[in-house]
Amino acid sequence: MTRAYNFNAGPTALPEEVLKRAEKEWLNYNGTGMNVMEMSHRSKPYEEINHQAQNLLRKLLNISNDYEILFLQGGASLQFAMMPMNLLEEGKKGYYVLSGSWSEKALKEAQKIGDAESVASGKDNNYTTIPDIKDLSSLENGSYLHITSNNTIYGTQWHETPKNLSIPLVADMSSDILCRPIDVNSYGLIYAGAQKNLGPSGVTVVIIKKDLLARSKDSLPSMLDYRTHANNQSLYNTPPTLAVYLLKLVLEWADSLGGAEALEKINQQKAELLYHEIDQSNGFYNGHANKNSRSLMNVTFTLNSKELTDAFLAEAKELGFTGLNGHRSVGGCRASIYNAVPLEHVEKLAQFMKEFRTR
Ligand code: PMP
């Protein structure tokens, strides 16, 4: 059987090299006679895996020693609550830019913890554009500003993050971490579920500026306190060992390709193939996102009728393309083209889009 042309929104394709390497090491990881799942998380081999994964992420995103890297569980959804539990200060506000459903969810969770509000929203235009924050100076008394760097459902992405903020910038990078280089120093905290660009589900990466750890209160349950995990190398309790191991393999793969710069170039090439087909289709395909907010990771588009959409998706499925249905709130189609989706698969999709349109 051949591999699917996998355009799932997440979990999604992993690099074939990574899967083969895992298969090779499946019964006997590095001479231990065990699968990584079978070994103690307190053993030397596992501690090394944990350490190497952290170091690789530090290298690939150029993360300075001012930041802790944590591997947690509970998905990005737990971070919607855990982040304000730790960072939202008494008498101050958590500010949110609403750029899609995930940021709405993040705000709702924060409002259960304390005082949080939206400072810009793209909801009125159905999240086709990343909204502008009108007055940055009005944020001065906040605890943080939260953004969702890539909007998985709507296919929009921040291309320039707010500059000269006087409060920490917090970003949910679940669907675009490591798709391009970023300046980690301009963030107070970054979180991301691994299951799109970094590996399988089950592990969530948190990158937090060390000085922000001082905001956590002793009254927090240990597992919800960032300091617990920072002080224990993310080994306070049993970590998702297999997920962290696969994360390490994905990071090695990313490193071997040339890191974030190289990945960005390939991602631009892949996205351009699909956006080009949309733009020159004379309205046969309609891109959901405005051009200046288009995502490198999720290409969203509609066709002009339900019949045409159904026919497109049915034929695509026949040909081995999977995951092209749009999210129910946008409809139409969505091609998620995360780091591990090969260029050739995107070329195949662009070719199919063209053939279908011509016919
Ligand atoms: N944020 C974004 C941007 C996402 O795309 C997703 C998942 N699709 C989430 C948060 C929720 O992540 P999880 O399922 O890991 O909780």
By CATH, the topology of the largest domain is: Aspartate Aminotransferase, domain 2
Q: In what range is the share of β-strand residues? A: 15-25%
Q: Give me the CATH architecture of the largest domain, please.
A: 3-Layer(aba) Sandwich
Which structural category do the helix and sheet elements fall into? Answer: alpha/beta
How many structurally independent domains? Answer: 2
Order of helices and strands: EHHEHEHEEEEEEEHHHEEHEEH
Helix content: 25-40%
- Number of beta-strand segments: 14
Average pLDDT figure: 97
- Shape call: globular
Task: Name the CATH homologous superfamily of the largest domain.
Answer: Type I PLP-dependent aspartate aminotransferase-like (Major domain)
Uncertain regions spanning at least 5 consecutive residues: none
Count of runs of 4 or more consecutive helical residues: 9
